[in-house]
Amino acid sequence: MAKIKTTYACNECGSVFPRWMGQCTGCNAWNTIEEQQPVGTLTHKSSSKAKAANVVSLQTESQPEKRLDTGMSELNRVLGGGLVEGSAVLIGGDPGIGKSTILLQTASNLALKDQKVLYISGEESAYQIQMRAKRLGVQNAPISLSNALTLEVILATMREERPDVVIIDSIQTVYSETSDSAPGTVSQVRIAAHELIQAAKNSGWIIIFVGHVTKDGNIAGPRILEHMVDSVMYFEGDRGNSFRLLRSFKNRFGSTGEIGVFDMRETGLQEVPNPSAIFLEERPENAPGSAVLPAMNGTRPILVEIQALVSSSNLAQPRRTTLGVDPARVAMIAAVLDKHGGFSFSDHDIFLNVTGGIKVNEPAADLAIAAALVSSLMNKPINQHKLIFGEIGLSGEVRNVNYNEQRLKEAEKLGFLSVITPHSKKKKEFKTTLSLTGLKTVGHIGSAIFE
């Protein structure tokens, strides 16, 4: 009889090792590696008895997926149009960010539309959920509640109730009696997620998982969990700010990178249909160091304000502090402005912030960042009705970016009059009433932003 090989896995990142180690080399966490249950291998004898699967031609027209309206347009946007029947969705985020709140509101909307919803919570009692429902004003929704923790009990409950939507809050609390590992470990999360997803897909139910996150912001447990589900969404936001962003990182039925904007209030999460106006609502007038950027989040343009403060420094190495953007990219832009634009930042501290808690990662923000830095350095305000976007190269050239039409349409809706863009022949094809100024190099940025 062949010897069964024992493996060890990390509870934090799911990395697998042939022997026990004190520190995981994948995530550098200590004392997180535990013995993993061996998985049986498929023998030649058993595989020979298997029946062939049904094969469908690529040219065969398939039926479009059926979607359920969640009752929240911002959530529908992130999902790609609503919840798809038989799909599995994973929502992660920091504790207290609003994961359970939005799911309870969504469950209420679905239940009031004659959809049968089963809410399984391993972290809160039924009384606690009922109290939150009263605070949110959804206590009259016909939602079925359960505090089951055992995988076998949950599957039996799902088969008996036959719900349309199942919410598991959270997957880390579910455990199987067939495994000796503690709840939340790699083997337990993998077994529970696999069995629940298979049951949901076979029956056409929609299943929504809530996932804990580690101190690094990643979903706790094995990485395979994110591969198994159809959609992965993260709740983002600052505790000191009422705005919450629901961002899609994976979506088999829609675009990734899409965001939904919500406002956390006492009565729950309220949708923000026009986030651009909200983020620019408190923008100061004629303030040096303030530039407006049309940032793309998925297919959605959002106008955000970039604020820069450049002050003289007596330090041997001036400070570079940023919020919402990559500090390395800001340092690179400052170096390009110094080399090719004639603006010296070597003896100045740089503080840069994207208002509203938005995180901007696209290269189109380069020109707006540069404009804010130059405006603060020269202590001159940028025109209030001017929009700025474009990518900056290391040679000082301003490069073209994508989604120009969408950015310009959003600027028109909010009353902007002029836009500074990369110099491109495609500008002539833009159908816009805005005054366009094209830049070839950063050497002309001063005259462009102050005119």
Question: What does the model show?
Answer:
The protein is of the alpha/beta class and about 450 residues long. The chain folds into three domains: about 1-40; about 65-270, P-loop containing nucleotide triphosphate hydrolases (Rossmann fold), CATH 3.40.50.300; about 280-450, 2-Layer Sandwich (Ribosomal Protein S5, domain 2), CATH 3.30.230. About 25% of the residues lie in helices and about 25% in strands. It is built from twelve helices and 23 strands. The protein has helices at about 45, 75-80, 100-110, 125-135, 150-160, 185-205, 225-230, 275-280, 325-340, 365-380, 405-415, 445-450; strands at about 5-10, 15, 35, 65-70, 85, 90-95, 115-120, 145, 165-170, 205-210, 230-235, 245-250, 260-265, 270, 290-295, 300-310, 320-325, 350-355, 385-390, 390, 400, 420, 435-440. Strands 8-7-9-10-6-11-12-13-14 form a nine-stranded mixed β-sheet, with helices on both faces. Helix 9 packs across helix 10. It is globular and about 70 Å long.
Could you give the topology of this structure?
Layout: E1 7-10, E2 16-17, E3 33-36, H1 44-47, E4 67-68, H2 73-79, E5 83-84, E6 88-93, H3 99-111, E7 117-121, H4 126-136, E8 144-146, H5 151-161, E9 165-169, H6 186-203, E10 206-211, H7 224-228, E11 231-236, E12 243-251, E13 259-265, E14 268-271, H8 275-279, E15 290-297, E16 300-312, E17 320-323, H9 327-341, E18 348-354, H10 366-378, E19 386-388, E20 391-392, E21 398-399, H11 404-413, E22 418-422, E23 435-439, H12 445-449
Parallel strand pairs: 6-10, 6-11, 7-8, 7-9, 9-10, 17-18, 19-22, 22-23
Antiparallel strand pairs: 1-2, 1-3, 4-5, 11-12, 12-13, 13-14, 15-16, 16-18, 20-21
Helix pairs in contact: 9-10
